[in-house]
Design brief:
248 residues, alpha/beta, Rossmann fold, 6-stranded parallel β-sheet, 20% strand, NAD(P)-bd_dom_sf, SDR family oxidoreductase, ComplexI_NDUFA9_subunit, NAD(P)-bd_dom
Length: 248
């Protein structure tokens, strides 16, 4: 199978490319660095020529709802137009567990992902939407974005974090399976407090920073009380945090 990975040079994209190649697929890496800009549609026609399935793990980090929605809607429309022209039969997109939960509406990024899901569903291209919980790598990313020298702010959140590699494997399997609509949510095997998870990761890395748990404005209470947790029909997949740390 020929698979195009949109956002193929990012953290998740690289893992998806590796998993797809290991499974014997012909992979096209599509990103701005390879001449593809999904926000304008530039380069998409060439990247999707002869492609059987598209795995979209592209990203646009912003907490402005207006910017997030505008980006993800425009990108989804550009991608669908190129897929239709190229005869692509399956679009797989990675999303976030509970991104459409009204309790989390204060997070503009979540509104953008929910808008992306709606656009993909309405595109006319057969699709699979796979939502995952936060990744273990989320802790270190948060510290890099909210770190101030020896201090780092980490949001108070309860989640069932999952390894990014586990998500990548599930995305490739979804592409192989064929269009499934909304797939079962994917989560890790343990309910964890994100500040404590992050502290454990940094200790293992030998990083000396004082982590300060903070409540995010707006949806902070919901995040602390379980709004990020998946439903009973979700799929849990390892490794555990300790197993993941042992392999890294």
């Amino acid at each position: 199978m020929r698979i195009a990975v949109l956002g193929g040079t990012g953290l998740m994209g690289k893992l998806v490319v590796a998993e797809a190649e290991a499974a014997g697929h012909d992979v096209v890496i599509a990103a701005r660095s390879t001449g593809v800009d999904i926000s304008t549609g530039a380069g998409l026609a060439g990247a999707l020529a002869g492609v059987d399935a598209v795995v979209d793990v592209s990203d646009h980090v912003t907490n402005s709802a207006k910017k997030a929605v505008a980006f993800f809607e425009a990108a989804a429309q550009n991608i669908a137009a190129a897929e239709n022209a190229a005869g692509v039969k399956h679009h797989v997109v990675l999303s976030i567990v509970n991104c459409d939960d009204p309790r989390l509406k204060a997070f503009g990024y979540y509104q953008g992902k929910a808008a992306q899901e709606r656009a993909v569903s309405a595109s006319g291209i057969p699709f699979t939407i796979l939502r995952s919980t936060q990744w273990f790598e989320f802790g270190e990313k948060t510290v890099s974005l909210m770190g101030f020298g020896p201090l780092a702010l980490v949001p108070r959140m309860r989640s069932k974090p999952v390894a990014a590699k586990t998500v990548a494997k599930a995305l490739v399997q979804a592409a192989e399976k064929g269009p499934s609509g909304r797939a079962a949510d994917l989560a890790g095997p343990e309910v964890l407090e994100i500040p404590e998870m992050t502290r454990k990761i940094l200790r293992r890395r030998g990083t000396r920073q004082l982590l300060i748990p903070v409540s995010m404005p707006g949806a902070g209470k919901a995040m602390r009380s379980g709004a990020l947790l998946p439903g009973a029909d979700s799929v849990s997949a390892g490794p555990t945090l300790d197993e993941w740390l042992g392999s890294h």
